[in-house]
Structure formats: structure tokens, C-alpha cells
Specification:
Layout lengths: L4 H20 L1 H4 L6 E6 L5 E6 L6 H14 L8 E3 L3 H13 L1
């Protein structure tokens, strides 16, 4: 039995940074409903997805956030939360999360 507090803190820090970027890009922020967060996914060409904030608590999504932190730190090239994985993998993961 272990605690995952460092990942939760990291996710909150990432969201805080994403929130600051969203304030700078007000037109983009208008397209994100309350309770959701925009993420950019892809290896070379990034595609924007809007996902429920509840996904941030899921261990599989937290693994993606950890990968993003390792690769980008908190300086995301897209001005928002960027996740470095293939789009098809991300779509598969979010599909599984929406079922559960």
C-alpha cells in the first residue's frame, strides 16, 4: 500500500500552469467547459483534446502526466498541458476511462 501524493501535487501544479496559460489565451479558454481541461497530444503534430478533470485522478492518466513532466517540465511548448504520446494511445486510454 503506497501513497501517490507526489503525482497528485504534480498534477495540481500542471493544472495551475495550464490555468495561467489559459488566461493568456482567452479565446482558447472559452472553448473549455467548466470541469474539463484542454490537453495537446501527439508526437510530432499536436491535437487538442478536452477531457474531464476527473481523469486526472486515474492512475493511467497520472502516468501520462508524469511522462509530460519528465519531457517538458512545466514549460509546455503549446502553451497548455502537452502529453507526449501517440494520439491513438491517448484516444484508447480516454475511451477506457469514459467507460469506467
Amino acid at each position: 500500500m503506497g501513497f501517490r501524493m507526489p503525482r497528485i501535487i504534480s498534477a495540481k501544479q500542471i493544472l495551475r500552469m495550464t490555468s495561467l496559460a489559459a488566461d493568456q489565451a482567452a479565446s482558447t479558454a472559452l472553448n473549455v467547459p467548466k470541469g474539463y481541461v484542454a490537453v495537446y497530444v501527439g508526437e510530432s503534430e499536436k491535437k487538442r483534446f478536452v477531457v474531464p478533470i476527473s481523469y486526472l485522478n486515474q492512475p493511467s492518466f497520472q502516468d501520462l502526466l508524469s511522462q509530460a513532466e519528465e519531457e517538458f517540465g512545466f514549460d509546455h511548448p503549446m502553451g497548455g498541458l502537452t502529453i507526449p504520446c501517440r494520439e491513438d494511445i491517448f484516444v484508447n486510454l480516454t475511451s477506457q476511462l469514459s467507460i469506467s
